[in-house]
Amino acid sequence: MDSLICRRFLVSGKVQGVFFRASTARVAEQLQLRGWAKNLPDGRVDVLALGSLAAVERLAEWLRQGPPRARVDAVEMSELAADDHDTLADFRTG
Questions:
Q1: Percent of the chain's residues with pLDDT above 70
Q2: Based on the number of CB atoms within 10 Å of its own CB, is 19 exposed (0-12), middle (13-18) or buried (19 or more)?
Q3: Phi/psi at 12 (nearest 5 deg)?
Q4: Would you call 7 a catalytic residue per the annotation?
Q5: Helix (H) or strand (E) run with residue 69 in it
Q6: Catalytic annotation on 64?
Q7: Taking the domains of the chain in order of start, what are their residue ranges?
Q8: CB atoms < 10 A from the CB of 40, how many?
Q9: Backbone φ and ψ of 55, nearest 5°
Q10: What are the tens digits of pLDDT across the range 24-70?
Q11: Could you tell me which of 25, 34, 32 has the C-alpha nearest to residue 94?
Q12: Which of 18, 52, 77, 91 lies deepest, with the highest CB count within 10 Å?
């Protein structure tokens, strides 16, 4: 079994009001990831992904483009300790 990794992504551009969170959740669920996608007051979307390295990297690739109505200008990524988020049961939007 692959060990778990956890990454946080801050996605900027036209990413609110274009089904970005719902689309991210759908992709994350297909990849069997746990975490969240939520809007931030500054217009960015905060995405936390916990899962296998391959699955998190596939989500990262998808985040760089997003759904059809989105325009992604930048994706900032940071590594987090997987143990700190191991209690997450699924992928949610907020």
A1: 98
A2: middle
A3: -120, 160
A4: no
A5: none
A6: no
A7: 5-83
A8: 13
A9: -70, -40
A10: 999 999 999 999 999 999 999 999 999 999 999 999 999 999 999 99
A11: 25
A12: 91
Q: How far apart, in whole angstroms, are the C-alpha atoms of residue 22 and residue 93?
A: 7
Terminal-residue alpha carbon distance, the chain: 30
CATH code assigned to 5-83: 3.30.70.100
Long-range contacts of 25-29 (CB under 8 A, 24+ apart): 25/91, 25/92, 25/93, 27/59, 27/62, 28/59, 28/91, 29/90, 29/91
The residue from 8, 26, 39, 92 that is catalytic is 39
pTM of the model: 0.95
Q: Let me know: does 29 contact 92? Beta carbons within 8 Å.
A: no
